[in-house]
Amino acid sequence: MQPITVSFIIVNYKTASLVCRCVQSIKQHTQFQTYEIIVVDNASGDDSLGILSELTDIILVKNTRNSGFGAANNMGAGFANGKYLFFVNPDAYLLNDAVTIFTDFMDKPENKTVVCCGADLVDDRGNKQMSYGNFPSVFEVFSQLGFYRLYRPFFEEHLSISICNHRDEVRQVDYVLGAAMFVRADGFVAVGGFDEQFFLYFEETELAFRFTKAGYQCVIVPQVKMVHPEGSFEKGNYAKLKWFSESRQRYFKKTKGSIQAGIVKFLLSLQALARWLYHRDPYYFRVFRIIVKS
Question: What pLDDT shows up at residue 100?
Answer without folding.
Answer: 97
